[in-house]
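Risk register update: the risk of archive-format incompatibility is retired. Evidence:
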Amino acid sequence: MRTRQPTTTLEDPRIPVRVKLAAAWTSLMFLYAYVDILAFFKPGVVADIQAGVVWEFDISQTLFTVFLVLMAIPIFMIVLSMTLPARANRITNLIVASVQVPFAAFNAVGESWRYFYGLGVVLEVIILAVILRYAWTWPRTAPSATMATSPDRETVRAQ
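Archived output:
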């Protein structure tokens, strides 16, 4: 007869909000990139690019600068989510994620491949909603009556 080994519970440590936000922004960045990369396989896209046109816009330094700025936003949010102080981090994530929602929706405007671009937009909006939720529900700590923090983050005794 076999003796049954007791089952153990897997450790499930609490993940800091900063890490959750950075992971969500990383996911959004990869989703943006992969939607754009996969779009190159859509018939006519490469030919249009070779002819100097992206969507309806002429390829120019200005257009590519705009594209770079739009792509840099989630990239910088990864770093900012890990480095900004909690209050600034929360506010920045709430503002930037809210502003990103219309940009995500713009990608589907006028597209003939509604399933592909529609799915991309839905996934992007879901990730942005997750970011908004993490930022909005950022855990708070009660102020301590015996300890206070100075602006330079050194712990000092309250008087």
